[in-house]
UniProtKB/TrEMBL annotation:
Residues of the V-type proton ATPase subunit S1 luminal domain: 1-102
Biological process terms in GO annotation: regulation of cellular pH
Stored PANTHER family: ATPASE, H+ TRANSPORTING, LYSOSOMAL ACCESSORY PROTEIN 1-LIKE, VACUOLAR ATP SYNTHASE SUBUNIT S1
Source organism of this protein record: Thinocorus orbignyianus
GO cellular-component term (any): proton-transporting V-type ATPase complex
Membrane-spanning ranges: 118-141
Protein name: VAS1L protein
Length: 198
């Protein structure tokens, strides 16, 4: 597939040649096309050659990518064919690139297979965060399931309580004066003090 710029100023002699191949894959039970190589020709001489990577789609589809470039910042799908080639002097970038080599009907692109990966960094981070949240939830459920019921333990001990002198005459048999310098205090002999442990 050759793209000729025709009479566009300085690009009059420039031709971009895309070499496409088609192959049958038994696993997918269909033909796939691939962009094998990209060549830049100027005045009928090859100026640069790039090998294409990961540019492929089923033959009944087209291939679409936001950037197809030889630059690393665009994921470099075009790689210079050799270190000694003049390709190192060229930077090629296609924006909103779409191609279909075979089974073209009525001059329109078929449904596009996009180059966007299913596992982009944003998707991977979302999956990791979801996994962490699921682990926290599983740990919380585990702790709730194995939570034991509270047991109550009662322990009653006799403890002396001291009260100031009271004038009730009916409690005389339960009070015994304590020897103390100054104020008189009484101890309740039958006073029980209970502690509750939960």
């Amino acid at each position: 597939l050759s793209l000729k710029f025709g009479d566009v100023g300085n690009l009059k002699g420039l031709v971009i040649r895309l070499l496409l191949t088609t192959s049958y894959y038994q696993l997918s039970v269909q033909n796939w096309f691939s962009l094998h190589r990209l060549q830049l020709l100027y005045n009928h001489s090859i100026q640069a050659t790039f090998n294409a990577t990961r540019i492929h789609a089923p033959s009944s589809y087209s291939y679409h990518c936001e950037h197809v470039s030889s630059l690393q910042r665009y994921d470099a799908l075009l790689i210079p064919s050799s270190a000694n080639d003049l390709s190192k002097l060229w930077e090629v970038t296609f924006i909103d690139f779409q191609i279909q080599g075979f089974n073209i009907q009525e001059g329109h692109f078929a449904y596009a297979k996009d180059c966007a990966s299913f596992f982009s960094p944003a998707i991977l981070m979302g999956l990791v965060m979801s996994l962490i949240l699921l682990l926290v939830l599983a740990y919380a459920l585990h702790m709730l399931i194995h939570l034991k019921s509270l047991d109550r333990h009662y322990e009653c001990k006799a403890s002396p309580a001291y009260f100031a002198q009271m004038k009730d005459s009916d409690m005389g048999d339960e009070k015994e004066p304590l020897r103390n310098s100054g104020n008189e205090s009484y101890e309740l002999r039958n006073q029980d003090f209970c502690k509750i442990y939960i």
